[in-house]
Amino acid sequence: MHGWVGHNVYGAELERVLLDSAAIDRRVRELGDSISRDYAGRELLAVGILKGALIFLADLVRRLTVPVAIDFVAVGSYGAGTESSGAVRILKDLEQDIAGRHVLLVEDIVDTGLTLNYLLEIFRARAPASLRVCVLLDKPERRRVPVPIDYCGFVIPDEFVVGYGLDYNERYRHLADIVVLRREVYRGSSV
Ligand code: PRP
Question: Under 8 Å CB-to-CB from 146, ≥6 apart: which residues?
Fold first, then answer.
């Protein structure tokens, strides 16, 4: 059995490990290599989408061999819970001007695509030199709007996952593995 059951008090809500930390680490290195190759000779601005992308961004930038600046944007959907309501708003904007910069949006998961679609529209209008998307997890079954993904870590099935930055009601972000939440934990709940 994986270590997470023993060292967190919420183990009973978690069903199984989908991606363990070793698999994540390997894939993040590969993504870092691809991005470093593609951006050779250029300087990158990595934009993390709070809060879920925090841990992925932190690991990814340490695998890059090109110069990289970091900024964050916080986006919220109207309403909380496991379902995106469809409406998105910026809670915290970038601190840096992205005009003429090579921007890489870094996201933990693409579900409906609404968050990234919204951000891409807004950022495109600010005239970056380039704008690409790097996501750790892609859940294509849930897509409502198409999103161009340039770098993808893993395609995953339509299950509720937590850990490695992803939360359920703000819990589990600290887990090193990506773990499936038991369906009965969130089924029928409107939180
Ligand atoms: C999650 C995730 C993405 C978004 C993806 O964020 O981090 O930003 O949902 O969903 P979508 O493709 O349906 O738009 P959440 O709103 O849970 O905030 P968080 O990152 O702070 O956990």
Answer: 113, 117
Mean pLDDT in the chain? Answer: 91
Token pair in block for residue 134 = 């790097």
Domains of the chain: 21-156 (3.40.50.2020)
pTM, entire model: 0.91
Long-range contacts from 172-176, C-beta under 8 angstroms, 24+ separation: 172/8, 172/10, 172/14, 173/51, 173/52, 173/54, 173/55, 175/4, 175/8, 176/4, 176/20, 176/21, 176/24
111 noted as active-site residue: yes
Q: Which of 106, 109, 171 to mutate to test the pocket of ligand 1 (most atoms within 8 A of CB)?
A: 109
